[in-house]
């Protein structure tokens, strides 16, 4: 069953469960989702002082839980509502969207002209993300900078970068550069055995978690409803021309594919993309290659709804694999279709809507 809790953002400590009249939440790969929860204040028995404390944006996060599973966790950002409203809408964003998109990886008093904020050399994507998060939280050793985030494992690899103070990049900007190189990143919320909120940082070319969950689509008692297979070609392109930092003749550029044919039997649809924070030719080529891989193949993205009263929302969490078995459809071939959840949305009811793509 659903519960909604308030947690301290910096420590993850559970503050208290709150009564809610409504909820609309959206968990997204990359931790870029958002939510609105209707906090029932009138008749709740909570003193005004406590209500005003619990709704403090940034200090507190709101968590939508099913038992011990966190379906959504977001930093409270806004609570505007009419003064006489019995329900206070707490609007939140997932931790990256709320904090990392604008947070500098250094203190304002640490600015060093022509200095290097952080340099990583021959690291894996996970190793680079680890270094970025460690820098952006000061290793959890300085009050105010700490966050309940598990750092990914370090490792060697082909990613190298140096970020300068004068660039003014946020933690989110730096993570985006790792993603531009071909990685996916995510901060998955979870509860410790003592009930504290933490985030598992996941980094991979394709983030997956858990064993595939088999979902018969037409069997009696199936939890799948409103199955809608589809292919999205809006972003599909036959070639990518990418520009990095610089201007005029000094501007970096690269293209993909460098060999072979991205056109096949399609009309030409090339695109120009800018990576203004990339100063290195090799990294620019890697970013352009990754952009071409993402755009050249159309995205098979299905819609569906799941009734979770038996299994809970964990079966369709971000990164989970869903094997949907179809039979007798006019459009879908009979058999098992391998899908991956890249997003999950819902409310306070027993129905959730995963955003899924064909996997493998």
Question: What does this entry look like structurally?
Answer:
There is one protein chain. Helix content is 14%, strand content 41%. With 360 residues, it is mainly β. The protein has four domains: 2-98; 108-203, no CATH class; 209-232 and 299-358; 239-296. Helix 3 runs antiparallel to helix 4. The radius of gyration is 22 Å and the shape is globular. The chain starts with a strand and ends with a strand.
- How confident overall, as mean pLDDT? 94
Weakly predicted, low-confidence segments: none
- Sheet with the most strands? 14 strands, mixed
Number of distinct helices: 5
- How far is the first residue's CA from the last residue's CA? 33 Å
Spatial extent as radius of gyration: 22 Å
Helix content percent band: 10-25%
């Amino acid at each position: 069953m659903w519960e909604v809790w308030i947690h301290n953002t910096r420590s993850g400590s559970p503050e208290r469960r709150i009564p809610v009249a409504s909820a609309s939440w959206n968990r997204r790969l990359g931790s870029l989702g958002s939510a609105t929860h209707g906090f029932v204040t009138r008749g709740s028995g909570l003193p005004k002082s406590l209500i005003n404390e619990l709704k403090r944006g940034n200090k507190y996060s709101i968590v939508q839980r099913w038992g011990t599973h966190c379906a959504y966790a977001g930093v409270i950002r806004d609570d505007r509502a009419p003064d006489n409203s019995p329900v206070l809408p707490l609007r939140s964003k997932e931790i990256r969207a709320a904090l990392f998109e604008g947070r500098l990886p250094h203190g304002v008093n640490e600015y060093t002209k022509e200095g290097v904020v952080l340099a990583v050399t021959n690291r894996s994507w996970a190793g680079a993300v680890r270094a970025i998060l460690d820098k952006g939280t000061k290793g959890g050793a300085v009050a105010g900078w700490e966050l309940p985030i598990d750092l990914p494992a370090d490792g060697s690899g082909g990613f190298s970068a140096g970020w300068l103070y004068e660039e003014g990049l946020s933690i989110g900007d730096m993570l985006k550069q790792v993603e531009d190189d071909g990685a996916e990143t995510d901060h998955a919320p979870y509860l410790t055995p003592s009930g504290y909120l933490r985030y598992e940082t996941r980094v991979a070319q394709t983030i997956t978690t858990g064993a595939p969950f088999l979902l018969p689509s037409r069997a009696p008692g199936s939890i799948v409803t409103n199955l809608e297979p589809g292919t999205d070609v809006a972003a599909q392109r036959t070639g990518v021309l990418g520009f990095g930092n610089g201007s005029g003749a000094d501007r970096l550029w690269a293209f993909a594919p460098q060999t072979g044919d991205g056109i096949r039997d399609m009309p030409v649809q090339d695109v120009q993309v800018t990576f203004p924070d990339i100063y290195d030719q090799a990294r620019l080529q890697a970013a352009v290659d990754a952009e071409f891989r993402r755009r050249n193949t159309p995205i098979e993205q299905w819609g569906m709804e799941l009734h979770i009263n038996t299994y809970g929302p964990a079966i369709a969490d971000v990164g989970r694999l869903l094997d949907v078995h179809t039979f007798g459809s006019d459009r879908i071939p009979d058999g098992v279709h391998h899908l991956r959840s890249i997003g999950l949305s819902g409310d306070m009811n027993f129905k959730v809507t995963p955003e899924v793509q064909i996997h493998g």
